[in-house]
Amino acid sequence: MFGTQSAVSVGALTFDVWTAGPDDGEPVVLLHGFPQSATGWSLVAPTLADAGLRVIAPNQRGYSPGARPDEVSDYTTDALVGDVIGLLDELGIDSAHVVGHDWGAAVAWTLAARHPDRVKTLTAVSVPHLAAYGKALREDHDQQQRGSYIGFLRLPGKAEDLLLENDAARLSAMYGDAVPADQAAEHVRILSEPGALTAALNWYRAMTAELGELPSVKVPTTYVWSDSDTAIGRCGAEDCGAFVDAPYEFVELAGVSHWIPEEAPEALASAILKRVSSG
Questions:
Q1: Residue 224 three-state SS
Q2: Which of 50, 125, 190, 198 is geometrically suited to a Cys-Cys bond with 101, CB 3.0 to 4.6 A?
Q3: Tens-digit pLDDT profile for residues 132-152
Q4: Catalytic one among 83, 102, 229, 239?
Q5: Cβ neighbours of 11 (radius 10 Å)
Q6: Annotated active-site residue in 63, 204, 223, 229
Q7: Residue 254, SS3 per DSSP
Q8: What is the pLDDT of residues 236-257, one digit of tens each?
Q9: Is 204 tagged catalytic?
């Protein structure tokens, strides 16, 4: 892991948050995806901190033991976005540079679209603007095939049973060779805690088609996509810029899997720093 861990309370929930870099640096919030945790930023965060940024990486709702409510309805995207705003408020931050990977990108896109006053810049990783992704799911056969796993993850109970059986063998296999063993082990440890995997899967179970109607983003944005991502195809990736009404850059990484923060941390950190510096 990296930096210093602390507990930050937002209403009735308490989040485990890692910070690094100078306290007076420009704040950058790193939002992890599924099935990951803040540990997934371990290879990216030190570069950002060394560049003078104040890095903030929470274990999000369901991943922090103190922020693990029971109901599917507790995991709407609006609730997840509200957590980030609450963390910013508790840390005394008016606006921050926001980086999100996978589900973290979905939260980041929504935050930037609906609360642009809280987002200085956006760097979205793997998942494109949700309207572009939704359009690809409707119209592109390739993306429909790539996204077919979502239906399985939405199955109550069955998904948990299959992913956690045999010492979480299937869950561990999802990381392949791209995620360092120590990071993968930490993700699995967290998701093996009582109720944790159900909470993480509730992100999928609470989502609705309305996510695909997200308005365009009006903050400076970089979108990082990898051409060996098995979950996200080229159609939505290349369409992403149509939903950004601000300075925009599309960064394509060749030969890199879905696990960009772990597999290509230098390239990702470079893209983040470029976006932060250019605004």
A1: strand
A2: 125
A3: 999 999 999 999 999 999 999
A4: 102
A5: 10
A6: 204
A7: coil
A8: 999 999 999 999 999 999 999 9
A9: yes
Classify 100 as helix, strand or coil.
strand
* Token pair belonging to 37: 């945790």
**Burial zone of 12 (CB within 10 Å; 0-12 exposed, 13-18 middle, 19+ buried):** exposed
The contacts of residue 169 (CB under 8 Å, 6+ apart) are none
Q: How far apart are CA 229 and CA 127, in angstroms?
A: 10
- Residue 118: C-alpha distances to residues 81, 85, 96, 221 (Å): 11, 8, 6, 14
Q: Report residue 117: phi and psi, to 5°.
A: -70, -20
Tell me the one-letter amino acid at 267. Answer: A
**What's 244's DSSP letter?**
B
Task: Count the Cβ atoms, other than its own, within 10 Å of residue 127.
Answer: 28
Phi, psi torsion values for 137, nearest 5 degrees? -65, -35
Mean predicted confidence (pLDDT) in 102-127:
98
Contact 27, 96 (CB under 8 A): yes
Nearest to 121 by CA among 249, 257, 23, 222: 222
- Kindly give, in sequence order, each residue whose CB lies less than 8 Å from that of residue 7, ignoring residues fewer than 6 positions away: 14, 15, 16, 17, 66
> Letter for the amino acid at 43?
L
Q: Which CATH superfamily is domain 4-278 in?
A: Alpha/Beta hydrolase fold, catalytic domain (3.40.50.1820)
258 annotated active-site: yes
In whole angstroms, how far apart are CA 102 and each of 37, 50, 157?
A: 11, 25, 23
